[in-house]
Design goal:
73 residues; alpha+beta; Metal Transport, Frataxin, Chain A; three-stranded antiparallel sheet; two-stranded antiparallel ribbon; 2 helices; 29% helix
C-alpha cells in the first residue's frame, strides 16, 4: 500500500467523476453524490483549494467507500 499525498482539487474531482459521482452543488465546498445499485446515496465534498490535504482525502475515502489506492499518486 502506497502513501497518501496531497492531491489537486481537479484530480480529486476527476477520481470522483470516474467513479460515477456527479456534482450537485458548489458553495463553500463542491458537493458530489452517487446512488448505488442498492439505492444507497453516497455524498462527499471537495473544498475550493488548489491542493486537498491528506486529512480531507481520508474523509472522502471514508464517505465514498472507494479503495485508498485510487487516491494514491
Amino acid at each position: 500500500m502506497g502513501k497518501l499525498k496531497k492531491l489537486s482539487q481537479q484530480k480529486i474531482i476527476q477520481i470522483l467523476q470516474n467513479n460515477g459521482f456527479r456534482q450537485v452543488r458548489a458553495r463553500k465546498h463542491i458537493t458530489f453524490k452517487k446512488i448505488t445499485r442498492e439505492e444507497k446515496v453516497l455524498t462527499t465534498w471537495v473544498p475550493h483549494h488548489r491542493e486537498v490535504t491528506i486529512f480531507v482525502i481520508q474523509y472522502i475515502i471514508k464517505q465514498t467507500g472507494k479503495p485508498r489506492e485510487e487516491f494514491e499518486s
